[in-house]
Amino acid sequence: METGRLAPARPSLGAWERIAGVANLVRFRTAPAGAALCVTGSRLAEERADVVEVALTAIGIAFLIAFAQAFNEIVDRDLDAQSKPQRPLPSGAVSLPVARSIAGACAALGVLAAAIADPRLVPFALILVVLSWLYSRRLKDTVLLGNLVVAALASSCVPYGAVIGGLDGRVFAAQGVVFSFSLAMELLKTTIDARGDAAAGIGTLASRYGVRAGARCSAAMCVVAALAALALTPLASNAVLYATAITVGAVILTLASAYLLWTRRPEENELERSLQLLRVAWLGGIVSLLLL
């Protein structure tokens, strides 16, 4: 849907400003998190892959995440021109042809890294590319399905890292924790964006059934994620260390976010505060999962 006009690319931008624009386009901060989850998966596999294979797998997943983020920015460029004009495309920090080239290159490099690491990863990588495309093009306007797909994509980093060494129950248990946490965060993000989504005709849980419904569903998933994270304790090589790290780094903050979402009025500043708590918990949780 055409909802706004893009600013032309600004030729006067300096090199660092252009680099910052590209980093924002691919949401560079998400790539290290995906790579870390990939390493977690490799640690939980039946057999340990060698360092080079793990590194290639982590690099590959980082490129696939960058593709998903860049392609989503391309699809959302007109909507962002209205609601988020500071984003790289509507602001003119990155031109549309450059953004398309970056997205294509990231997808190709992600699949190439998978092929070099282990040919068995190639179908997995292609599925991730297709699902990312489907989400941005077709699945956003599906109330809850889009959130589920994003959570599945985020949590897939864990089994992706374990494919070379062999999948087992511990891998899927860790993926379940990441899935539940990702779903809680995605529900909250779409709740914050409810007004803009409703104006653009995008059907999410919050835009269809109200901000309070979205906030409370996110709160419920926060509780599920916290309990699931604690349930992994028996699988850790050092249960006390893991339980301490996950409680301090993720569980307390996640439950605090759930409390705010359930008890406070669903105003934008309260929702943003809850999201900030979840973002810190997300980082703490990833570090803790590395201790499994």
Describe this structure in words.
The relative contact order is 0.12. The protein is globular. The chain has helices at residues 15-25, 30-44, 51-75, 77-83, 88-91, 96-117, 121-139, 145-155, 157-162, 169-192, 194-200, 205-209, 211-231, 239-263, 268-289. The protein has 292 residues and is an all-alpha fold. The termini are far apart. Helix 3 runs parallel beside helix 7 (121-139) and helix 6 (96-117) packs antiparallel against helix 7 (121-139). Helix content is 77%, strand content 0%.
Estimated structural class: mainly alpha
Mean pLDDT across all amino acids = 88
Largest sheet: none
Tally of alpha and pi helices = 15
What is the helix fraction of residues, given as a range?
over 70%
Question: What is the number of E strands?
Answer: 0
* Oligomer status: single chain
Radius of gyration: 19 Å
- The percent range for strand residues is under 5%
Calculate the terminal CA-CA distance, rounded to whole Å: 45 Å
Low-pLDDT stretches: 1-5
The geometry reads as globular
Following the backbone from N to C, one meets helices and strands in this order, namely HHHHHHHHHHHHHHH
